[in-house]
């Protein structure tokens, strides 16, 4: 009985070891997909953080709140595998700019979109 239990534990241990060996590769591929895009009021990811969204919870695009965010966003961390398209107007209208996947923008002024964004969409 004791021997049997040890054997079962060993098998489980080997399975965990194998899974553990395989998992890091898949984790590094899938982890950014679970990441989010975050947007701040000021450059260098400072000031109020107005947006924290994932492609999953924003499948058809998202509004940036009219009171807390519209025409204020100055820095963005895009930690998703998707391009984030910022729009100058609500409802994905007006001028737009694409933020590359897995890229951070410490100052949107550098791409001519400081204090402009009103809404955004993921392009996955
Ligand atoms: Ca700003
Ligand atoms: Ca605007
Ligand atoms: Ca808005």
**How far is the first residue's CA from the last residue's CA?**
54 Å
User: What is the string of helix and strand elements?
Assistant: HEEEEEEEE
CATH superfamily name of the largest domain?
A: Crystallins
Which spans have pLDDT < 50 for at least 5 consecutive residues? 12-33
Instruction: Please state the structural category.
Output: alpha+beta
Largest sheet: 4 strands, antiparallel
Rounded to the nearest angstrom, the radius of gyration is 21 Å
How many structural domains in the coordinates? 2
Treating each run of at least 4 consecutive H or I residues as one helix, how many helices?
1
The level 1 CATH classification of the largest domain is Mainly Beta
Strand proportion, as a percent range, falls in: 25-35%
- Name the strands of the widest sheet in spatial order: 2-1-4-7
Helix content range: 10-25%
Average pLDDT figure: 84
Description of the molecule:
This is Peptidase inhibitor family I36. InterPro entries: G_crystallin-like. Keywords: Signal. Pfam families: Inhibitor_I36. There is one protein chain. By secondary structure, the chain is an alpha+beta fold. The protein has 2 domains: about 1-30; about 35-124, Gamma-B Crystallin, domain 1, CATH 2.60.20. It has one helix at about 1-30; strands at about 35-40, 45-55, 60-65, 75-80, 85-90, 95-100, 105, 120-124. It has a 4-stranded antiparallel sheet, with no helix packed on it. Strand 1 and strand 2 (about 45-55) form a beta hairpin. The protein is globular. Bound molecules: calcium ion (3 copies). The site of one calcium ion has 7 residues, from loops.
